[in-house]
Specification:
The chain is α+β, with helices and mostly antiparallel strands. The protein has two domains: 2-57, Ubiquitin Ligase Nedd4, Chain: W; 74-180, Chitinase A, domain 3, CATH 3.10.50.40. The chain has five helices and eight strands, in the order E-H-E-E-E-H-E-H-H-E-H-E-E. The protein has helices at residues 7-10, 47-57, 101-117, 122-129, 151-159, and strands at residues 2-3, 16-21, 26-31, 37-38, 74-81, 140-144, 169-171, 174-180. The strands form two sheets. A four-stranded antiparallel sheet has the order 1-2-3-4, with no helix packed on it. A four-stranded antiparallel sheet has the order 6-5-8-7, sandwiched between helices. The longest helix has 17 residues, at 101-117. The chain is globular and about 50 Å long. This is Peptidyl-prolyl cis-trans isomerase. One of its GO terms (cellular component) is nucleus. It comes from Aspergillus nanangensis.
Length: 182
C-alpha cells in the first residue's frame, strides 16, 4: 500500500515519501527518482515534522495481540533513548545523536515520572520520543524469547510481570524503559 504525502506534512526532503511495507507491516522511506528505499529517514529530513506525521499516520493500535507465539516467549514494548556512546548513535528522530549518557538517563527519568504518575503511558511516549524504529508501533517489539535480545534487556524484560514497567535499563543500544505486554 503506497502512502505518498506532501513533503511539507512529512518533513522529508523533496522526492521522498513514506510508504508501507506489507511484509514487515512498517512504514519506510522511498525516493521515487532514485528508487532508493530505507528504514531510516534520509538526510535533510525535518525530524520534528516527521515525528508529528508518524504519530498521526503510522502508530499501531494499542493492545493488538500477536499471533503464533511459542512457549517461553514474551512480548514487550520499550522506549529507547540513545546517546553519543550508543553502538549506533543515530535514529529516525536524529541523524546524529550527540547527547551524553547522563543526559539520556535524565530524559528517560522524565518519561519514567510521567508514566509512574499516570500522565502518559509508555506506548504513547514511544511514538514520538523513542530512538528505536519500533516507535512506529508504540515501542512494541513483538514476541521474543531467550537469546533474542541483548542480555541486559532480556534479563530485565523476563523479570517483569505483564503490565509492569521496568526501571532504567542500560544496553549497548542506549537506555530503555521496558513494559511487558504478555
Amino acid at each position: 500500500m503506497e502512502l505518498p504525502f506532501m513533503q511539507a506534512e512529512t518533513g522529508l526532503p523533496e522526492g521522498w515519501e513514506v510508504r508501507h511495507s506489507n511484509s514487515k507491516n512498517l512504514p519506510y522511506y522511498f525516493s521515487a527518482s532514485t528508487k532508493e528505499s530505507r528504514w531510516e529517514p534520509p538526510s535533510g529530513t525535518d525530524t520534528e515534522k516527521l515525528k508529528v506525521y508518524m504519530a498521526n499516520h503510522h502508530s499501531a493500535p494499542a493492545g493488538r495481540p500477536e499471533v503464533g507465539h511459542g512457549e517461553g516467549m514474551i512480548r514487550c514494548s520499550h522506549l529507547l533513548v540513545k546517546h553519543r556512546d550508543s553502538r549506533r548513535p543515530s535514529s529516525w528522530r536524529e541523524a546524529e545523536i550527540t547527547r551524553s549518557k547522563e543526559e539520556a538517563i535524565e530524559i528517560l527519568k522524565g518519561h519514567e515520572a510521567r508514566i509512574q504518575s499516570g500522565a502518559a503511558n509508555l506506548g504513547d511516549i514511544a511514538i514520538s520520543e523513542s530512538d528505536c524504529s519500533s516507535a512506529r508501533k508504540r515501542g512494541d517489539l513483538g514476541m521474543f524469547g531467550h537469546g533474542d535480545m541483548q542480555k541486559e534487556f532480556e534479563d530485565a524484560a523476563f523479570a517483569l510481570q505483564p503490565g509492569q514497567v521496568s526501571g532504567i535499563v542500560e544496553t549497548a543500544s542506549g537506555v530503555h524503559l521496558i513494559e511487558r505486554l504478555q
